[in-house]
Amino acid sequence: MFGSRRPRVLAALCAALAIALLASCARVVSAATEGDSPAADSSSSGKKPNIVYVLTDDLAWNLVEYMPHMRQMQKKGTTFTNFFATDSLCCPSRTSLLTGQYAHNTGVFTNTGDDGGYGAFMKNRNEEKTFGPALQRAGYRTGFMGKYLNGYQPADRNGTSKPYVPSGWDEWDVAGDGYKEYKYDLNENGKVVPYGKAPQDYLTDVLSKKATSFIGSSADAKKPFMLEVATFAPHGPSTPAPRDKDKFPGLKAPRTDAYDKATRNAPKWQRALSPLTAKEKEETDQKFAKRVRSVQAVDAMIGQLEKTLEEKGLADDTYLVFGSDNGFHMGEHRLRPGKQTAYDTDVKVPMMVTGPGVPAGEEVSQLAENVDINPTFLDLAGVEPPSTVDGRSLSDLMHGRTEDEWRQAALVEHHHAVSKEGDPDAAPKDSGDPPTYAAMRTDDSLYVEYADGEREFYALGSDPDQLTNRAASLSAAQRAALHHTLTALQRCKGAESCQAASRTQT
């Protein structure tokens, strides 16, 4: 049923491995070797490298083919082909990116309410864990632009109506509700500036100009810099720039093997899904075309950033990193457009990097997650990541070096939102609104445990689109082993603990 490798693969999941200290020791020795440290790759001049991170909202892999600068990044740099979000939902995913911790350690599981949003982020003291303050202390000029976290308002500090700029950021240009791309406010270094609906107010373009200015002023100051530019695109309503509104006429959403196909042995929350109607297919196509149009400005911004770095003589000293907080399904599994599931459409996201020492045209297949972003940026800057982060630095992998004892399982954890009020990602039942779950993605399987007791297991070698749930075919021993490893991941805390939990017996 699972092919010749399946019994061995399932057996490999039968126990969690104790922590492998050898990997940590080997890394220390390797870093001490001349020419093998991240700093040796960072810059031909020996300076600290710059880091520019472009983070998009809801950008799935199926949009990359429409982004020429992104495709050029793939040719010039390295692509992580198995990069996963710890939750296919904005606020918990972005919190993991900023802090390097899983949701069970940040306390941010949803976009609103007691267990989510900016309120939960602040309540659980996550702000001090972000990479901004650490890099600023290391001598970096730091900038953050665009979307921060759900619930953050430019003109409000804990209900006091005073504009708030978090510590650790030298440049702060952040919006609250910028999804429409027009008629928003930006907190510009503590001053709230309103923008209107003129073409020049289009938010992605405004961010591009501010990012270009930040790079220029940092070059003039002769200081290393770290800049995150977080767009609202292509999140709905997926408003394109005026120049792009008529592009791609007649474009349709991809008809993958999972498009309008019901999951066999589906969990209860999917069983009522009906085939897509002709009208729903047309609406899905229209939404996909809008998403494609809305990322044209993002792609243009990447091109402008690259041009500016070249003009300032900084290209050889700068890592340019591109990513997304989560993916997006559009008709797969008969789900209407949305996210929040554990399927690859939602949690497997683009991740590319170019920069000093990064090989061109390479792909990294090791399992990586957004909890790895924080320790990666610190590592590239020559800062030792704290032991409290759950992720690991991707520096060796992005520079073409191997990593011993790398993770064999990636954790996804999602809470069903108690309230949908004020949540831009609130989903109707037919677009993906599953019960609370935890999931574990390995190289060749997906295992999901729902709070209502249901289970999913997909053997990806024979079922890459995750259409046949084989959980009922697992033996009692196999189910126990999978549950044991997933539970260990859900309970892990800190780099050593999470590394041990992510390793399965071989």
From TrEMBL:
Q: Which UniProt keywords apply?
A: Glycoprotein, Hydrolase, Signal
According to the UniProt record, list the residues that bear 3-oxoalanine (Cys). 90
Do you know which Gene3D superfamilies this protein is assigned to?
A: Alkaline Phosphatase, subunit A
InterPro entries listed in its UniProt record: Alkaline_phosphatase_core_sf, GlcNAc_6-SO4ase, Sulfatase_CS, Sulfatase_N
Entry PTM: The conversion to 3-oxoalanine (also known as C-formylglycine, FGly), of a serine or cysteine residue in prokaryotes and of a cysteine residue in eukaryotes, is critical for catalytic activity.
GO BP terms, alphabetized: glycosaminoglycan metabolic process
The signal peptide stretch is: 1-31
The record's GO molecular-function terms, alphabetically, read: N-acetylglucosamine-6-sulfatase activity
CDD domains documented for this protein = G6S
Report biased composition (Basic and acidic residues) as residue ranges.
242-255, 416-432
Region annotated Disordered sits at 233-255, 416-436
Q: Which residues form the Sulfatase N-terminal domain?
A: 49-383
What family does the entry list?
A: Belongs to the sulfatase family.
PANTHER family listed in its UniProt record: N-ACETYLGLUCOSAMINE-6-SULFATASE FAMILY MEMBER, SD21168P
Q: What is this protein called?
A: Sulfatase
Q: What species is this protein from?
A: Streptomyces violaceusniger (strain Tu 4113)
